[in-house]
Write a structure and sequence with these properties.
This protein is of the alpha+beta class. 35% of the residues lie in helices and 34% in strands. Strands 1, 2, 3, 4, 5, 6, 7 and 8 form an 8-stranded mixed sheet that branches. The chain is elongated and about 95 Å long. The relative contact order is 0.14. The model has no long low-confidence stretch (mean pLDDT 86).
Length: 170
Amino acid sequence: MLAQSDRVKYVLAPASLMALLLVVAGCQRPVPQAADTRAADEAAIRAVFDDQAKAMAAMDAAKAVSGYTDDAVLLSSDDPVMQGRANVQKTFEAMLKDKPEFSMGVPKIEVAKSGDVAYEWVTGKMTVKDKKSKVTETGFKSLTVWKKQSDGSWKMTVDTVVLDTPQKKS
């Protein structure tokens, strides 16, 4: 037979443990969900895209690459992989020497629910007139990966450009 003190131990120990668990569970608050900023993020990415399009139209390669991360990668048809914003700028400078005209569709932008990465795809045309006034029009498709920076801005980290077969015009 258990002594009175032993009975109290067997009853109070589990009861104390249960009370402690209830107190701890009651103190926990649900983790608040982060606000969904995807619409604002998409607008911010679109603004960078628009700035880049304006810079390309102005033949300003330095401004055009300002929306890239320092370690950005550019993948394009028949070219080696360009790594680093400085190399992307050199590629743009070489391309802009021919004074091309660009027309691009409105990009499709999808921001991840996490709010830290996004992708954008666009189609367009590049038109170049050579020294004999022959016009060549080349269609292209582009897929770009964007990363949100620590300051909240968005920059391109991987950019791909796939050229269609050029079409000679008069």
